[in-house]
Amino acid sequence: MEKTTPETDGSMPEEWIMSAVTARGNNRPEDEGLSLIETEEGTIPLKQLINSDLELYLGKPLAEKFGTTGVLIKMLDSKERLTVQVHPDKEYARTVFNSEFGKTESWYVLNTREIDGEKSVVYMGFKKHVTRAEWKTHFENQNIQGMLDCLHKIEVKPGDAFMIYGGVPHAIGAGCFLMEVQEPTDYTMRVEKTTPNGLTIGPELIHQGVGEEKMLECFHYDNYTLDEALEAWKITPEVLEHSDEFTLRTLFNTKHTNCFGLSELLLNGSHTIKGSSSFYVAVIYSGEGTMVCNGKKYTYSQGDEIFISAAISELTFKSDEASKILLCYPPN
Asked: Which among 126, 143, 156, 308 is least buried, having the fewest CB atoms inside 10 angstroms?
């Protein structure tokens, strides 16, 4: 019998998918975060492939406007609660980091699990009573429970979807398995100086080098009831197309943001996707089958991450077993 290695939880909860973005932080491995892609000529960095012909791979609009993918995709599986944090909106990113991208992001809950008897939750948005002065005091005193009590705590289940706009405080609880589609930066402001497990977080990861006062300016100090928070940020998926062989649903689209998009293809048969003016990415969450493109067949299976160039005019997925395929899109 083949010996297998048991699965164990670790302290690195993220996988970056189709990334042309380098992770931030001191003493990080060189080129950490950059994705590699398998081609007929061998395995090379995705960034190198794209830069070899921007228009061919990205599509003319993205090539001319950004010269890069314009999106970052992650899978995240939290063993412990992640730190309370915020990402910059476009204005803050432009003025403080000289970046055309902020870090608005989305969460699509793929699965959950109880850890130490606790159900999976997320935290987001300031409650009605919270003021900037109170938030600053909790930060200076490192009153972690006080900070958590300032945020809405929301129990989550598979299929839940949330927009997390730049400036909105948030944290992901333990036991959440999410797909994150977001703007392509690694700008994160944190207000906890130690992780829930007791690891120290360095200043560069607290304030990204801009100082604590400037870090606190990244937060939007708007206040919400729980119902208002859910109305603002929880998304209801919509069916775009449906047949006996497939259901195509949109989760995040231009109703919510022009920074990225995410759809879900539930496949038990065949479905053809027509190309547009830009690339897209398919992540095989479950199932297996074949893809047909320009008369050639390619197999797919659970865990595959597929970059579809803007030059591809048509791609047909045919499932051998029922499949869930996540389709991630760049800025509109």
From this structure: 143
